[in-house]
Design brief:
Chains A, B, C, D: Homotetramer. The structure is a homotetramer. By secondary structure, chain A is α/β, with parallel strands linked by helices. Helices cover 46% and strands 12% of the residues of chain A. Chain A has an eight-stranded parallel sheet. A two-stranded parallel ribbon of chain A has the order 1-2. At the C-D interface, helix 6, helix 7, helix 8, helix 10 and helix 13 of C face helix 6, helix 7, helix 8, helix 10 and helix 13 of D.
């Protein structure tokens, strides 16, 4: 039963503790801006990384020690993994989890058998949820690992593969619905292309939109009211991913009339791979009222691929939490650790060190974000920077009542405007002060 | 009068010529797919690079030898430059040109004086156009060089600067209209931000949209019917540019109800800086019926900034011309050489070598593109790849009449689909064959 | 016996052929600069990519169709693969091959058994070589895939793993020697580190040098006279690879007194990942008389990892062949296709399309390089650019006989020097002319 | 006299202070590991950024407000700038400075006049040094801004330009010597190339080495005993810089017999542009006993060029200071702020905010580094990770007494080694604990 026999339930011990198996900052019931840390964070664990990531990479096989796993495709093995995972959730004190259908149950190269296996494991997970109170943040279908999807699923050149993908999404939506999942995510694994020489981009995007409209219709039909998400990512695994960043996703959603039905699930490492900061991507989504959930991790900007490292950079976590507070907090979303240990950190205990580090990093980020807001200097400087927009001139422009002729007359009558400093360095000093 | 005394009018001499001052492939009146090369290309020269680029860089001053320029801010000097430029256009046999207001006329740190100078030079340019038959592809306002715009123009935190920018756009639109410009371009020079700590992104984007709506209104008012363009670019000069790529621009245009009024002017080096290929950006724009014009150049993908090199890569020019042919050719747009010589190529004759190289590279690209289309193999393979979408199954999905339930039933009744190879390597071999 | 029944022996049919299974430029016995193409190229095929690459990636399993493989770790399966590989070599008309020990024979998680299996397969390969005349370009040991090497081999923090690596190199050198391998390569798979927090760089590099000195000693002992190579690569798989580029390798070899014993095996995609062009890396190696062999492939500079694509870019192959001609040709080295088909090109015939494309691209590159040399314009411009160095002033400096005092006197007596244009655009035009 | 009338002398006020014009962590006389912060840091200010950087960029002119500067090339203006600079040094409490010859004195396009002007300003600086006690960390010659150097100085294709460069270095060395400079730096501004089509790399590197040997000889002749440095940097301004990173510099120094005479001056933003971390570059230099001095700044890894931002990232400063402590501190070197304010931070007071932020960031970095060393956990884990190297097996290998045969026998007799976790996440948690 105890698959992590040496690991106690991780508890808050405060910043002075030297216990590597304790939280130093994440204190679930501590109130920040009147809400508990637990409710601010809504931490989720990723089934794929915790239970199914062998830590292989393109140059070598798996290193992860997983004594509970017999590496078979049996439903029994899948259920045993689920038991281990819930022990992990309990010990690490994380309330939510996320999965792909093929993480929790085997791909059996036969649609009927795979779906049957999925349903069996879903029942088992339902029992574990009930027993522990853990909840499903979101579910998704893995439409990118199997060779049939090597050229896309919703954007496959093969209509039969597209149909297969739809059937798989339906089953994953059923599973998510049954488990009370608060969201359902589309990550466009292979929705993109390798070369335009063999690709009809417009036709593929039309198909992708058709799939998403069917998902919206199906949710309505079965009474699933969870939130749909798209997760942007560039370059990987397809050289050219359609959903490359927040703007690309929003453009797609607007073009195909889907913006009312979808929000974004934004991942830090995907943002930086797209050449943006995470806070840029969050802000773009928020401006469209479309920030839904967050995949919490971090990348290595000196590397050109998705390293999915555990979030440890306090600048990063602080900036994320500033945005989350600015938004008024998550509703259906949360902070899902889409993060893996380094390949060299192959022992089970490293799973705990890694998650503890990520949770503490976000707890400190939350404290910093709240401190920035309480301190007020940064916010005041931002407000003051736009002060001219609160004058008559600015108000008229903002009201859409100005014209080029009129503004030209105004300019002719005025001296050259003198711009104030942007004060980036001072703002960074203040942020460091509060870190 | 002859500022390039050693340079003859550049003529077509065919592929065997060793004359460095001759075209080896650009034969203006040669028909390709029934249209002259001249009409396919609609080449444009960039006033800023030809006449105003001193070839300075962040580590050193200008090197360009420009004996005709007295480096003063006088209108006379500006007119003399215009004369030299038109001599250049005639000798290089380019029919179109593009300018920023501050390229053709001096910025005098006083709105009225700057506008007066602009108008004087515009009259002079009108005379030169009439005398030579050269035409204006598009005009634009430089809203990024002057310190007043250091924090943006349409997205300035200062409403007075915004107004100034509007007045400058009005004057530049007037100039473009007077010169019969076929388009008017917005490149978001400093429309972006350096740090979110001092930036209200949503408010700034609202302002930018307001400016563009005023431009649309003003065009209507003055009867200007040329095409508006937005030119996407990431990172430079603002760390975070709002118009970072085609998708970001389209998203903005859709959100603010501007998509009917704007097309995109896409530049190769901006595409690659955004992490996309040029043909990706063109295809994204075409899928939205929004490809307007092209800034022809190329970057160095080992460098992280806009090198604006002259286009010499035949793969690049072939892929661009394939897209242009696929679109049915330019209407208002063209191939504007937004390209500069390397800083070490500082002699006037290098301007000719550089443009000859770019024009020949595009002429070969056009021939390759036409050969690919005539050959048919690549097109056939692409069509065949989507064959299942032309069956009943595919047609039903494309018609929006399929559902998850129905597709699931279909999948259950079928064997596993077997995917055909994508054949990228063979396609690349065929392209090489035709190069 | 015929594992590629539909594939004939690939033959030269000339540039007009439309046969996708024919060479259009690679004509093995055609003489270029007095030497046959075959001898210029010394093409090699990579056992790992042709026979062992399932085309999996971090987001999905293998797609490659390999009907001859039973996916067992048996020696019989290994021998059968060898038979298929030699059929491939014969049909594609490639004379050389390269291998890692663990490509040709199974890793059996037991040193003695693995070595025994290796020896058995080596005997089988020896027979195949004798029967076909094919030769081994170089061998190597795979010191990066197995979990034991996850933290390095020659730079492992664990001395036992280091010893294991040495034993494996010894066995791989024995195999290479037995098969008449003309070279032996070290690619520092995991020789690097993930974080300096747990790494003693100096100590690790001392160990790596110790391993290489033992290899030199062992070669002497067994009478192996083949060439040792180091293959530079940055970032992958270790975040920080010690042998990141040519300069880093040369620095290491100089520091540890190994420069007489090693040359470099340079790969195009590794060069670009390091931020250099391939021709830069080749030139750096040649300046140290240390260019040994080439891993022929190409990357996608918009992606941040080693895509190992088949070389198709004619600019790239031309520039490589220019350097090879400049060096006077390969001695022990050759052009080894360290290249894989895209994951979507999963059919056996794609192996042929891919290699045909690569061989033709290099054949054209060789023709272009020879044409550049015959044409002479580029070489003349280069020579003329350094003309002042052939004057008395230049000669004195080059002879090491000048001093600051003397040169200052000279400068004081002279007018400001006027620099000639670097003519980059004209040079690129000439190169395009000859392509 | 008081050019910064509103700025007091910046004083330490402790972490609770909200005064933006106070140090919160840099307390010059506070002892850390028994040495004052002042002596640990040896902060330097960069004359070029503080006094001569107009904050122009490739897309716009200068924005910096510098009321003291008449923008003339007069020696009087140069002297006045020096006065302002020393007022700055006093108020910001920085002890050292660095300069290029052309920062402190005008380039007059005539060697004799420029040198005369330089000497006049040097005398003035000598007086200011005496009056204030400020010292010169290092001097250097600007061999990259003037058009004559557009194709290199020490690697110019023109021997006359090379000679000019030597004469300029001589004068800059004289100036440095006269001012008691503790070092003299070579940054290879344009020592590299744009295209290999016109470049003889080997010949150029031979020339560069000749220049450096002349510098060594000249130092000996005049009795200058300061330390020579090379500062590595990739890509900018030459596309291919010869001194691209620490390893490239060390390789060059070893090849040309210069390693005894030179150390490296390593800049954070140059390290990251080269694809390395700063701590990697420092460690590489330290392993060769060649770490001399540091240019303190930071880059934006989402941008592809040298942004030279002020260092604010506490992870970065902590890792740098860990290395500096590990080395035993600076001897001739120091922390020179080769950093500029953002273009939007154009007011004089921003110079103070920026330097205060950088100094406080390094002060915190020093405290964190000392805490990591005092805590001991990270160091202990590192030591323990290499424990097997302290056994007989490891010792024998390290002594150079092992052979492949012997190690193979050992391996055959042992079970498979089992590797311990690298514990990267735990190490990062501990670092965060101590931040
Ligand atoms: Co994710
Ligand atoms: Co990810
Ligand atoms: Co452009
Ligand atoms: Co550009
Ligand atoms: Co390789
Ligand atoms: Co590779
Ligand atoms: Co520096
Ligand atoms: Co720098």
């Amino acid at each position: 039963m105890a698959h992590f026999p040496e690991i106690p339930k991780i508890a808050y011990e405060g910043p002075k503790s030297k216990n590597p198996l304790a939280f130093k900052h994440y204190n679930p019931d501590e109130l920040i801006e009147g809400k508990s840390m637990r409710d601010h964070m809504r931490f989720g664990a990723a089934y794929w990384h915790v239970m199914r990531n062998s830590l292989s990479d393109p140059f070598g096989g798996g290193t992860a020690v997983m004594p509970w796993d017999d590496y078979s495709d049996s439903v029994d093995n899948a259920k045993k993994r689920a038991d281990v995972f819930f022990e992990f959730l309990e010990k690490i004190d994380i309330d939510y989890y996320c999965f792909h259908d093929r993480d929790i149950a085997p791909e059996l190269n036969d649609f009927n058998k795979s779906t049957e296996a999925l349903n069996a494991v879903v029942d088992h997970l339902g029992g574990l949820q009930k027993a522990t109170g853990k909840k499903l943040l979101w579910g998704t279908a893995c439409l990118f690992s199997h060779p049939r999807y090597s050229q896309g699923a919703g954007t496959s050149p093969d209509a039969r593969v597209f149909a297969y993908g739809c059937a798989q999404v339906k089953a994953a939506m059923d599973a998510t619905h049954k488990l009370g999942g608060e969201g359902y995510t589309f990550w466009g694994g292979r929705e993109g292309y390798a070369t335009l020489l063999n690709t009809d981009m417009k036709r593929e995007l039309d198909h992708l939109a058709a799939l998403m409209h069917m998902a919206v219709d199906y949710a309505k039909k079965i009474g699933y009211t969870g939130q749909f998400y798209i997760e942007p990512k560039p370059r990987e695994p397809s050289t050219h991913q359609y959903d490359s960043d927040s703007a690309a996703c929003l453009n797609f959603l607007r073009e195909y009339g889907l913006l009312d039905h979808f929000k974004l699930n934004i991942e830090t490492n995907h943002a930086t791979l797209a050449g943006h900061t995470m806070e840029h991507e969050l802000t773009v989504a928020m401006a469209a009222n479309a920030l839904g959930s967050i995949d919490a991790n971090q990348g290595d900007t000196l590397l050109g691929w998705d390293t999915d490292q555990f979030p440890s950079d306090l600048y990063g976590t602080s900036k994320v939490m500033l945005k989350v507070l600015e938004m008024g907090g998550f509703t259906t979303g949360g902070l899902n650790f889409d993060a893996k240990r380094r390949r060299e950190s192959h022992e089970p205990i490293d799973l705990f060190y890694a998650h503890i580090g990520g949770m503490d990093a976000f707890a400190r980020g939350l404290k910093v974000a709240a401190a920035v807001r309480a301190d007020g200097r940064i916010g005041d400087m931002l407000k003051k920077r736009y002060a001219t927009w609160d004058t008559d001139l600015g108000a008229k422009i903002e009201a859409g009542k100005a014209s080029f002729d009129e503004l030209t007359e105004w300019v002719k009558s005025q001296p050259e405007p003198v711009l104030a400093s942007g004060r980036q360095e001072l703002l960074e000093n203040i942020l460091n002060e509060l870190l």
